[in-house]
Amino acid sequence: MLKPNFAIYLGEEVETGFTGFVCQDNFFCLLETGEGLSKDEGRGILKKLTDDLEFAKIGALADFDSYFANHWKQSKLPTGFSFVALFLNDNLSFLKTINLGQIYLKRGNQFTKLISENNSASGYVQPNDLFILTTENMTNLLNENSNLQKIVVDKSPKQIVDDLSSIIPIDKSKGTIGLFISFAEEERAEELETETDYLPKQRIQVPLDFKKTAGKIVLKIKNFIQQQDRNKKLAFAAVAILFFLFISNIIGGYQKRSGAQKGRDIQTTRDLITEKLHQAEDVSGLNMQRAIVLINESKQDLANLKKEINDNNNKDIVFLQQLISSEELKILKKEEKTSQEYFDLSVENKKASGQKMSLNKDNAAILDPQGIIYTFSLSKKSIDKQSSSDIKEASLVGIDDRGTLFFNRKNAGIFQISSDGKIKKAIDNDTDWGNIVDMVLYDNNIYLLDKTKNQIYKYLVSENGFSQKNQYFKAGQGIDLSNANSLTIDGSVYISLASKVVKYTSGVADDFSNTFPDQDININKVFTNPDLTRVYQWDKAKGAIYVVSKTGDYEKQIKSAVLSKASDIGIFANNAYALVGAKIYTIDLN
């Protein structure tokens, strides 16, 4: 499978019309119009074009042509628009140009214009192929096509764009756009990204010891002149003045060109980042993963610019930092929430200290290592407690639909507390158990998560207690649970493996996405139930709850300081409940 590595050249923005692009894993296009199309309208057309393409069945060139023909009928594009597109289906490319559109290919030592004007073509892409998507505006600026050929020789897309920035005059670059895409095998593509794609531009550097060197030269000239007669002294003085004027002009010219180039770099990066953020916002509703990629690319573009101009206090750098940050919060729906103290267990016991919490609807069972289990109604704020020396060694607590309490004692089994406070053993200790790290009561059945034996044990409720253990996973469906730390059930079973969540239905693996806007995710608990329409994943280190759909699609992130202090959390009626010592805090998830 070939992976693209691309860079885009954007000239000065035009006052009227629209110049835009789309760069995705397998679809690249440019749209350029004169008057008659606003920037918002242009972005809307590109968004619809890209969204619909995801569901289009394109297996042949005729399908590709038909797709665009149907799309243009629905779009209100002004006459005379120019369009260029490349679509990759595995390693088969489909190409399209309209009006001034042009597509070039460099393959090995060969360089050719593939198609232009109103044409289409298809063919297989080979490793190291370089495609150039542009319009006549760019090739006209470069005078001849051969100039473009010289520019692209032995260069990465980013290096090509750097060279174009120094060749094309700023005042003539309005509305000019060019997209350069190279393809490499997956492993080689990763090398290109790290080694060549973001290489800094090579610039002429004035030596740091220039003043020192110049001073020595001046001193030698001065001593030499002093040894000559008056006429020769005047002649040498004139030559020296002309020489230093010449050097000053060179340095001044360099500084002027360098400043102009820096301005171009900033404007190009600003346009690129702005366009990527617009695309991220457009696709976030349907493809959050793509939005995250675009935001990360924008951050990388800004990091590259910082290296280029070496001035973090530059007003444009500061502006772009703020722009990316604000757009990231908006697109990725990161919300900072304050918590409210909801209840203090110390009203029941001054020494109360909650460690584990289990929720079943609005009933919370809270384990206190001092040998107490509190039963707390979240809706009524009523509290009860059961205390016993047997509870002191408990590591897990659970509550069923009837309000019956259960707790686990290592090497002792599962115990049940009846309504009259009596404790009896519900399930004997099993020598086959490894390390039981979580217990869930669902439909009054008991589920135990064993991270050592890579298994979930299911005990069915019966008239006389509970059945013998049943292994939850179907044959061949088991996975490594060595990193497992929690499970939750809504009919399907969700297991947190710290860096991701897996989903099983009737013991068989089910689809569940793990797309996050942050890196280094460490999920401490996953939570849902039949009454909830979302799955909630708690990362204590980040003080965040990630809200996802029941197929794992990311929706938003709630951050609160109390989430970094809590020992456990639960969700009920659009509120998160965080247990911190003797106190329960609530966070609004709406």
Point out poorly predicted stretches. Answer: 192-211
N-to-C span: 42 Å
> Quick check: average pLDDT?
84
The number of helical segments is 10
- Secondary-structure class: alpha+beta
For the biggest sheet, the summary is: 5 strands, antiparallel
Fraction in beta strands: 25-35%
The CATH homologous superfamily of the largest domain is termed YVTN repeat-like/Quinoprotein amine dehydrogenase
Give the overall shape, derived from the CA principal axes: elongated
DSSP summary, beta strand count: 37
Strand order of the largest sheet: 1-10-9-6-7
Using the coordinates shown, work out and report the CATH topology of the largest domain.
Methylamine Dehydrogenase, Chain H
Overall description:
Helix 8 runs antiparallel to helix 9 and helix 9 packs antiparallel against helix 10. Helix content is 29%, strand content 34%. The relative contact order is 0.07. The protein has three domains: 198 residues, 4-Layer Sandwich (Phosphatase 2c, domain 1), CATH 3.60.40; 130 residues; 249 residues, Methylamine Dehydrogenase, Chain H. The chain has ten helices and 37 strands. The two termini are 42 Å apart. The protein is of the alpha+beta class.
Concise description?
This protein is of the alpha+beta class. β15 (372-377) and β16 (383-387) form a beta hairpin.
Write the layout of secondary structure elements.
Blueprint: E1 2-10, E2 18-23, E3 27-33, H1 39-53, H2 61-74, E4 82-89, E5 92-98, E6 101-107, E7 110-116, E8 119-124, E9 130-135, H3 136-141, H4 145-152, H5 157-167, E10 177-185, H6 186-195, H7 210-226, H8 230-283, H9 288-309, H10 315-331, E11 334-336, E12 340-344, E13 356-360, E14 363-368, E15 372-377, E16 383-387, E17 394-399, E18 405-409, E19 413-417, E20 423-428, E21 436-442, E22 445-450, E23 455-459, E24 461-462, E25 465-466, E26 470-471, E27 486-489, E28 493-496, E29 501-505, E30 508-510, E31 525-527, E32 535-539, E33 544-548, E34 554-559, E35 568-572, E36 575-580, E37 583-588
Parallel strand pairs: 11-34
Antiparallel strand pairs: 1-10, 2-3, 3-4, 4-5, 5-8, 6-7, 6-9, 9-10, 12-37, 13-14, 14-15, 15-16, 17-18, 18-19, 19-20, 21-22, 22-23, 23-26, 24-25, 27-28, 28-29, 29-30, 31-32, 32-33, 33-34, 35-36, 36-37
Helix pairs in contact: 1-8, 8-9, 8-10, 9-10
